[in-house]
Predict the 3D structure of the following.
Amino acid sequence: MFKRILIANRGEIAVRIVRACREMGIESVAVYSDVDRRALHVRKSDYAYHIGPAQASESYLNVEKILDAARRSGAEAIHPGYGFLSENANFARACEQAGFKFVGPSAASMEMMGSKTRARQNMKKAGVPFVPGSEKGLESFEAAERLAEQIGYPVMLKAASGGGGKGMRAVYGRDELRSALDSAQSEAQRAFGDSEVYIEKLIVNPRHIEVPILADEHGNCVYLGERECSVQRRHQKVLEEAPSPIVDPEMRRKMGEVAVRVAKAANYTNAGTVEFLVDADKNFYFLEMNTRLQVEHPVTEIVTGLDLVQLQFRIASGEPLPFKQEDIQIRGHAIECRVYAEDPDNNFFPSPGQITRLISPSGPGIRRDSGMYEGWTVPLEYDPLLAKLIGFGTTRQDAINRLQRALVEYFVGGIKTNIPLFRRILRDEDFRAGHIDTGFLERLLKEPAKVPGPEAEEIRIAAIAAAIFAQAEHKGAVAAAPPAIPGAAPGKNGVSEKSNWKTTGRAESMR
Amino acid sequence: MTYDVVINGNTHRVELTKGEKTWVCKVGDTMMEVDAVFTARDVISILLGGKAYEVKRERSLSGETHMIVGSARYSSEVQDPRSLKTRRAKAGTEVGPQKLNAPMPGKIVRILVPEKGAVDLGQGVIVVEAMKMQNELKSPKKGVVVKVLVSEGATVNAGEALVIIE
């Protein structure tokens, strides 16, 4: 096993990896940019190296600077986390060339999965299901008509060299096909200088379900159940759960076996995730493979009882997987909320700034992977993910109840977070019934928020509290100071809170 | 002390009198005795007739405040009826020049409407980037951009005026 590992990342995932290191007796090396000197991952790690200015391209995305820190620190391996350089094949190759073990798949596997067309060819050979359609452009209207009939309506026309929704047309029936094809071709011609259009089955309101896998360097590969990630906003996952409310053991086995075939076709090693689109009839189609540890890995850890980061280290150091497929059992249900520094009342604007107050939930069935602390200033240069709150229980209902309870306890003051959004999702009837697809959240957000009718008593309490807060600020600190508890030892709470209040109260009354 | 507290848009007059250990509060016509202690900054514990509440105050950069009671969240604004500032604010400034302020610290990516350009209500005027996200700030009124106070590429602080629209 490695003695020292460098973590080429920041935020909650860097903290998560530091924890796995400490549990395994491995020394951890953090790297940080100018604005991250006070970040939690720097405070928690055994060593920390400055790697440059705030801008990610000059620090967390800079291969040379990271390798330099690795050399200086004496690390043997590099864990890339997610985001930043985690799916950069050149980085993986540079690590190996510089003599550091990259905790992840080989550069060749990453390259294969990174190229959509090459991935598709190789996966076809391995018998992986794709969304049915023509792989090449359509030669004529007749060809389109024949194919559409074969695949079955509705279908989607897509520009071969397209992207960003241009040259795309949904066709729900035969009578719409001709005009849709004409307009898609001319739009593709105008937008990309190429009128080639292909046809694909339109998956209406698909679910996004993914299968995490682990592969060692001795040819063993297992799948670890599945994760339902259909709750998304602008293609960004917001809430994930394991298991999926619609997957039964038979479907789990089928998807898992396909995922393992995908991994084997790519000579994949270490942790990865195979993503699928699932239609209303539970047909699943390969989407892509993520060649890294996923943000949402904790829900899998909880329902399988495995520590994926520790296993990543074991695999990277050459150990064989310590279990077989039949040893893996799914128990209970886990749901993760991604807490972002963004304002749900204001179009999800980012909300960086200082966290003036942090009250964190705990108690039964709650796991919190966080990169923030009270007093820390959230920098504006990076991804707004602050923390992940995970609730688990015997059933999906238990997990939802626990999360709802924990969200009442959770409070982040000073900046805005999307915590209120989760309260809304978790009390939505469709969500509670498991009726979710990738359009679920956009639809929910279009409806006016169904807030449970405010109680007269609570409104009075809110008004009184607001008045008392105002009064306290008015008087400076006197009324605001927490009363001394007679006989209690002067703890850090009593004293420091008091002076904080004074300073703040005074500062604010001077505005 | 007397305050006009606006909760979710409705004004409540709150009279506070500090007693020995508790507060005597009059909200509208209802009188009650409230045991309230601060447990931390922005957190207050309230006991009312044996029922316990924890109220957290959430303040945003743009100056709005919310009270969180249990899992419910109420927008709140406190007006001191005697304060000049409150009375001035009440007068309102819907007409005349309006500033478009940065809602968060960030970088100016693009200026969509140049000086002297006409804008409609809700039209995008300027794009600010923060936390890998680009955000379009929209015009609060129909009018003309009379002044652009920043340039593309500039770093701005929260609350900083970016353009003036008249």
